DNA sequence: ACCTTTTCACCTAGGTGTGAATCT
DNA sequence: AGATTCACACCTAGGTGAAAAGGT
């Protein structure tokens, strides 16, 4: 394997001489290595029940606990009149898949390359979720939030990441990547591994492809959100517009540092070893270099013959069969995140309303403040950070570029900021945007409609960010047909019974309202 | 190029000696060659205004014509209270893209390979649509319907397709392929080429991947449907549940014969010449065979140097820049389709409710007859043709297989068949399922809700098909990010203004109802 | 005979890290 | 000097028709 010259020049001795942070006695114990040693308190929070909502407002909490009708596996009884149950929530649990691989990276110090064109994550975030209402509709989305406000640099001779100063986080619209299966029933979500393979990270602040925009040399952490979409359950009572909830999960081992080129060659080596797309750089016997044996001798890898299976085979695709649930249980919002200035949310919706200078229909949907409803077009056009250029929108061609369903709509922060109906961004919104600077898992419920995924604590500094950018919800549609539908079907009819079956008729459809790609 | 031995053995002389059905004077005239010569009456219908709805019920027709607020380009004014406009319709027009290429194939006699695993179409169906309400939400879907009830065989010595008897159409659930961008605003639909590249055809009656199931050696024709989804426009009035419409378009030149191996080597050659994935079989100078010059001398190809540009470059991706709109105007339902027994519709929805033995919520949505609402679980379980096996469903793993959003729900024919609330499939539904055997573009409107995409005329014989299978609506999610979102955004904030931005908060979301993947 | 299935070489399309070049 | 970009070789993943094999 050929490591980068830089890495080779600076990191060899450190690599060899660096004492291992941890050692595994056997694969069993390895399953939650960092939980055993590192940052006990914080890890403890992550390890215990990952049910979200335990710090939610009492009202919601009670509803969550009182829900008994929607246990996984009984998905056939969500019928009439259960819109009154739409507020119910259960203890949603999330388990990280491939956590062993994640932990291997984490122990080294995970690095994720970000490029202008967008780079996938490896490993990618894959989770399993439990405790959803099988009959309820949910969105599942992911975002990537800063772990702190520090800029880092990698010190080669010590193979360590050092703080290189405070960061000046860009006033970029943080974006969400909405899982392409969204919205989907709880039953379906729970039945499958929810994978974010196709999400891409970029350092291009001008990115127009919906990738997650990050800054290089910073530490980030992915968060997975499970968002209810109640009204779809009983569409005959849509006028009730029930308040719904969001559960957020994150996993310590998925923390990573963004880079434009790998700094730690151990990371490079592990990526090459595990990422199928980097197979071309693997040692095939012919081009083994002097450093090739380093990873094998590194202590986080047990000396088993079946190591790879333990870690999910060659790829990360294994659903961590050897991993107990506790090893990667997600903790709702356990992160300590400093709020970078202007890290405020923006809401991207599917293409549906893209190109509409003011999709007022959606403004309605999110219950925008009056100022927005009155002058919706201006509202958008005044937000260069949010509004895509019409030309660019026009160039969106799904047939050529496989454009996804995306669109954007002001949500959260825009709503909060302008919620006073004054249109001013300075004199309002604090009640939603400003939260106590605490590490508790408390979730503050917003009784007022129209507030979505209000992220963490955001101060006046954040609010002063012009245009109060909101979270960018992107919806990628990469999924392919699943194995469903259509059991055995060999019935044939004698063609003597021919019937007229002419085209040319167009029938009216009665479309019942449901939930759109509003995430 | 190496043609199949069979084709070589049987078709050479026919290929060379066959008189061209048509000759082009120049590329300009070539743009609608078959419209000039072939089947004048039927083609004429296709060429004239492809506005759908002109034969619709008066009520709907009037509404269509009275709509003036939603002209393409003004997409920002669909706001409050426009649910009353949701019934409005305009003259929707559809234009086939790449029609020149389609016509080249059509002149030869288009063949489409179908395989067990599923095969893409080449050319694929790509359309442009006009006349939509920019602010309205639409689904766009495609299905493939039989042209007749005949089985064909290819006679090599005459290079012709001959009727080989009447067909015994399988009692297979006809399926729809819903464009992955669905639902989407009319403005967005109109701005882009709507492509169905990823749709696949299969001859596997047991297909569980959502592909379009066809029978080999039969003639089919794709149809593109534009389906309104009104209630999304004004979600504050969802209780109104307005009736909505479907516009169906088809293009004569997209007719094709299904094969498991190409019969006519001219087709083979043209496919190789134009399909990028078959580039490996193109003549690179080294392996030119004796037949390689045949296509070049064939008359549908003008002897221009820029021929390929005329036909949309090497691939079919060109949006027929040289093609006038009239050349491929879609005619709503101009086909003469005999109804194969059991060719009745089934409705597949996104994965959302898959695995729910009875997604009663959706039964509600489609306003199923009482018998279904009362015993929904049995309703599904009694339909082996429709209900996917739970095991298969469970194996659906979007992270591994990139499973799409799919689910199924009884719609159209199921509704029609059981619409008498008696549960009997014999004594009802004719008013919806039986249509005059005519080639007119008449669209019959269904005042009763819950009838979607009622296909063509279906007689009692069709209704007698057990389980009254319904159309299979599949939703593939292949799309990628389009170029949108996020204008210049370089605002930075002094990091002195650090604020707490901790994770651990979970905010409540007020989800307003919208439209789901109900197609 | 005729049709279908399977395997294969050869493509497209795009995800890897490399290493040189470039930027700041 | 550190960070970023770019062209590149080398992969994965999957869409082609050819040709042989299999089925009826």
In a nutshell, what does this entry contain?
Chain A has 18 helices and 22 strands.
Question: What's the mean pLDDT score of chain A?
Answer: 53
CATH fold node name of the domain at 93-274 in chain A? Immunoglobulin-like
- Number of helical elements of chain A: 18
Main sheet makeup of chain A = 10 strands, mixed
Give the proportion of residues in helices of chain A: 10-25%
The gross shape of chain A turns out to be globular
Low-confidence stretches of chain A: 1-87, 231-243, 285-315, 317-331, 333-519
Which CATH first-tier class of the domain at 93-274 in chain A would you pick? Mainly Beta
Distance between the amino and carboxyl termini of chain A? 43 Å
Structural class of chain A: alpha+beta
Q: What's the count of strands of chain A?
A: 22
CATH architecture of the domain at 93-274 in chain A: Sandwich
Quaternary structure annotation: homodimer
Largest interface: A-B, 207 and 208 residues
